[in-house]
Amino acid sequence: MPTADAEPGMSGGTAISAPALPSQPPGERALSVLWSFAKCLAALLPVYLAGYYGFSISVVLFGLMIYMGWKHSRLEKVMRLKSAMYLLENERVFTTEKAFRAKGDLPPWVNFPDVEKTEWLNKILQQAWPFIGQYLEKLLVETIAPAIRASSIHLQTLSFTKVNIGEKALKVVGVKAHTEHDKRQVMLDLYLSYAGDVEINVEIKKYFCKAGVKGVQLHGKLRVILEPLIGDIPLVGAITMFFIRRPKLDINWTGLTNLLDIPGLNAMSDTMIMDAIASHLVLPNRLTVPLVANLHVAQLRSPLPRGVVRIHLLEAEDLMAKDTVIKGIIDGKSDPYAVLRVGTQIFTSHHVDSNLNPQWREMYEVIVHEVPGQELEVEVFDKDPDQDDFLGRVKVDLDIVRKARVVDDWFNLRDVPSGNVHLRLEWLSLLSSADRLSEVTQKNQNLTNKMTDPPSSAIIAIYLDQAYQLPMRKGNKDPSPMVQISIQDATKESKTCYGTNSPVWEDAFTFFIQDPRKQDIDIQVKDDDRALSLGSLTIPLTRILASPELTMDQWFQLENSGSASRIYVKIVLRVLWLNDDATPTTPSPRPSAPGPGMGQGGITSELNPIGPGGLGKPQPSRPQHTTPDPEFATEGVLRIHLVEAQNLIAKDNFMGGMVKGKSDPYVKIRVAGITFRSHTIKENLNPMWNELYEVILTQLPGQEIQFELFDKDIDQDDFLGRFKLNLRDIISAQFSDTWYTLNDVKSGRVHLVLEWLPRVSDLPRLEQILQYQSQQVYHNKVVPSSAVLFVYVERAHGLPLKKSGKEPKVGAEITFKGVSHRTKICERSTSPRWDEAFHFLVRDPGDETFTVKLSHSWGQALGSITLPLKEVLFEPGLVLDRWFNLDGALPESQILMRAMLKVLDTQLAVCRRAPGDAANDGSGEEVLPRWVPSHLDLRHRSGLAMADNANSAGQVKLTIGYSMEENRLYITVHSCRALQACSKDGADPYVSFILLPDKKATTKRRTATKKRDLNPEFSERFDFDFSLEESMQRRLDLSVKNSVSFMSRERELIGKLQLDLDQIDLKTGVTQWYDLVAETN
């Protein structure tokens, strides 16, 4: 290395001044000046070319940014390399002058009982390093370079112009020997550290391309296994090497490969190189060098695993809030997820939105190849749209899990101020007998987790050795065989052996098995193009269960292949057995530190009115009823009926707007953080939605409801208008049926029916509302709610202890028709208190139930109760407030809560007399509703007896109007109701009409037919190109008919309607129900 790399203050160093410029020969000075001028010219050349060719200045700035980033990355990498070299050269001075660091960073001359120093080995490496360099130079120049040149025509001019591995030798920081596991092997852990001044340059003269490496850092733990130990020279059968974890790598590129130091490419290039190293030298991959003949190399390269660890990722607490607002002034939340790594096995959990105490409840299974050595690493991140934020990490030595069998604990997250993660780790031993297989599968069926795959009951190792006499390809050419091995949905491929019909693969594969009694091994031997099959083999796993020690090691005859085609495979099955009978889904709680109001062990210090385990009797001082907050059950329900829209803007135009098109409108409704979206109506500027939405709201000042209309497009939806309504105005009016003009657009209006529903406790009124709502039909299939359920969960008492004998951390989950709400989780206590309220919309209280489940941290069940709402209906004031016994708990386990029903009294449901009342006064006349808006014409609703028209055959709802913008008359047929049945099956109605006078029937129109429906919905619009004066001279002649066959005796005409259009305000447009007149004989 140059002396400039030496650090100041080093003893024995003498500063060597640079030679003065005048002492240089004149030729060298001239060359130096010319070189400086050339570099300046090269720097200015891109600017000149950009101006000459008229490029934007942003191109120059972009190139400058890339150059600055590359330069910064290069300087950082060179400084890291120099610092590493300086540290290795001056370990003793640096360590004694600075504070001692962690054990992993201490120099080799510091001795530890388990890691031995290897200065003697480092001295040998340093002495032999130049000769190792000579060997590598010969290997690259005389062996590797010719092989590369022969591999491609483009690389025929490749040559290594410089090979220098430098003066800095590889250092073995320490060695740890493991001899206690297997007497037929020696296991060594070598802690390697290399910060070398290696310089290798490559040139391809054909393309004037130069590239190279100048400086490499590599740090990692290399495990070397000497096995099997034999009684002959060389005493060791083979040497197996691998990195237990990915080593740390840093490369300083030169020449054309300088581009790999550009920000973004540098991490990518190092990752690609690390992936290549990992594919050969990082577990589960191994490099095996046999030293004697007749060894099973595949079994040495992929031995049976030491065991399997089942990882339960349960929860986390006190995570950092990364999604802050206003630069951290306002604390936010995080969206945490976890990444778990064991060697090359990586798993990612789902992310939990806006939660600093997430619950994952996920399970993973990992194969452990080497213990001691392998670790479980869990990293927690905050999910973000760009780069995810780091929330901490934890590492667990799997050798601890092997010794303890079950580890259920909270682990502190490192590298962050706060955070803990709860893990349950189970060591599954490998049994070579199937005696306990049934017990294992039965246990797995009882496990509950969020993973789609159930727990595995066994693993299988398949050693693919060789094949013999495979069929030839067309033209009698040798195939290039590879093997695909499949078990259920998992498929793995071997390497390809080129140009042979008797390949030797020596590959190994491992699969998790859920139930060996129901699964098969499928082996497909194919040519390298995956198209030509060379043979197949199916082996039921039941054959292996019947084999000694669950092992088959033999030749198998291939099917669909040559008569002599065979394949040699060794199959080893092992049953996964958990020695501990603990249930993985019942984790131990995290012990909390004593604090205010806490006693020893973190248990709440409030007196428990019953003894341990809840065996005492409840004390009489307990309250008998709940005491909810005065704001309990004050929420109201808003019902939004989206009816239709008119005169919307046409967005789907053609030929640059020359040809008018239509729109595909839909509506978004936003209220109190909830968004509703209607369905999309294709190609209609006057859409009919007829959709209903309901939302429970708290009466807060300033609340608004926002309506936005959009045109549905393939790319970005077009805006069709918006408007806002104040919730206070809706509550004041109680009911409104109005057209609202769209803002921010030229035209368009929306028809809404809004109702703030009064809440009453009148049970007879509930029956009338249910009868009315059963007759309502909406396009979005919503059944209007008849009541709202309020639930107040106050406290519980006498709950059971956990299986470990500790008090539980209890949470309550309230579920109603698929909608669930959870309370907070109380601190450890058998008598938790929540004081939380919830509400639900109820369709029919007579047929519905709600459930309350209590559990420890959403894991171990502590009891539940299912309450039919019928019980609430029988209570005075529709309120049920008392203690309830819990099922699945102790006999004295109870919960105190209040369930209250409020009937939603819609003003559109018309009140009728009870049958008994009608008989008393001798008349069956209806009782008028408490509120009857005249424009809704409630007198004609289907619940009433239409006494004023004895010939009434039902009603039809029409919208008739004239569009001044389109100069068209439009008639919309919405629906019919209370039609008369034409047969025992009802009727198949449709609507037909004509505008009189019309001698040629050019205005005759009809709707679609609705099968077996006496309250059909049509929602069809018909347009006529008439002037306003001509439209007012027309007479509507409408008939509702029953679709019948030619030979049918059923009545065809259901009802008729005749209407003069001059009696209607066509400019405004009228939507109204009209009576149909029945056919008279």
From TrEMBL:
Residues 291-411, 439-560, 618-740, 762-884, 952-1074 form the C2 domain. It is found in: Cell membrane; Endoplasmic reticulum membrane. Residues 1-23, 583-631 are annotated as: Disordered. The chain crosses the membrane at residues 51-70. GO terms for cellular component: endoplasmic reticulum membrane; plasma membrane. GO terms for biological process: endoplasmic reticulum-plasma membrane tethering; lipid transport. It is a peripheral membrane protein; Multi-pass membrane protein. SMART domains: C2. Residues 114-292 form the SMP-LTD domain. Its main location: membrane. Belongs to the extended synaptotagmin family. This is Extended synaptotagmin-like protein 1a.
